[in-house]
Specification:
It holds the Pfam family YgaP-like_TM. There is one protein chain. This protein is mainly α. It has one domain. Helix content is about 65%, strand content about 0%. It has three helices and no strands. Helix 1 packs antiparallel against helix 2. The longest helix is centred in the N-terminal third of the chain and has 20 residues. The radius of gyration is 14 Å and the shape is elongated. The protein starts with 6 loop residues before the first helix and ends in a 10-residue tail after the last helix.
């Protein structure tokens, strides 16, 4: 797996995941929608940690500033 996520992209994903988690545990979002958003938040954190997004590969996007061969 080649890295395809830059630092800004990773930071934005972690902030969004933290916001979703806060809203879920605060009770602002709940039910099926809350569960689905919490799963997306987990995926955001996971992809941020491994610096790879499979969807970016399918769409041909690369936000990583370092060129890899």
């Amino acid at each position: 797996m080649k890295k395809n996520m830059g630092n800004a992209d990773r930071l934005i994903r972690v902030i969004i995941a933290a916001l979703i988690a806060y809203l879920y545990y605060n009770g602002t979002i709940s039910g099926t929608l809350g569960t689905i958003l919490l799963i997306f938040a987990g995926v955001f954190v996971l992809t941020s940690l491994i610096k790879f997004c499979p969807l970016y590969t399918l769409l041909g996007i690369n936000t990583c500033s370092i060129k890899q061969e």
